[in-house]
Each structure stands twice: as structure tokens, then as C-alpha cells.
Amino acid sequence: MLIGKCLCGGVRFEIDEDLGPIIYCHCSMCRRATGSAFASNATVRSASFRITSDEELIGEYQSSPDGIRGFCSRCGSSIYGRSPSMPSLRRIRLGTLDSDPGNRSVANIWMGSKSPWFEVTDHLERFEEEPPEFYCAPAKKK
Fold it and tell me: Is residue 35 part of a domain?
């Protein structure tokens, strides 16, 4: 069981399955949403993600035709992303986790729109745009 919360602690959640691959997204929308060089994300099945406290604080912003970003309306913490065309999946913002997910980062994506002031020096796989589907899939069920 993974647990997490927003900055103010109002929105709390649980995830009862392993996360999919951890990826760093360098797209301009993730950079703006985080105020940083990239967002750290991993995919889970929506059915395995549960808000356990103050669900009414969740706000959602449609950042693209098929992208919705969930955040705490009190403190602004980005919590998840979801896509209306794939309602069974969520991308969790890993900075909100209280517990170690167990797996480690595997790739940098959307390198084509990376911040010019940030130098990626890790050994992870790199993709100029969206990676192969495997990188955005939830973990295989046990």
C-alpha cells in the first residue's frame, strides 16, 4: 500500500498496487504545472487510486483536449493527471508520496521541449516526445 498527500495535508490518498515505470516528463505543461524542470510520474489503474481525505479539495484543470490535471485547491499541489480517452489510468505525481514506491526511474520523456537551463546528466533512456506505451502503462497485476 502506498500513501500520499498534498502539501497542506488536506488531500490524502492510497494506492493498492505497484506503480508502473517512473518517468521524468520534460514537456512544457509539466514544467509549468510543477514550477520545475520536469515532473516525476508513474501510472496506476484508476481503480487502485483512492482519495481518503478531503476529496472536495480536489480541483481539476483541463490542460489539453485529452489531459486533465488534479490538484489540491487549497495548497496547489499537483496530485495526478488523467485522460478522458483512458479513464482506467492515472499518472501519479511522485512528489506527493509518503512511502517509497520500490521501483526507480527509467526514462526522461519529451526531451524535445526540455528547459534549456537544465542539463540532464542521468543514465536513463531518453525520448524526444512520448515514449513507447510500455513506459506509460501500469504495473502488471500479480
Answer: yes
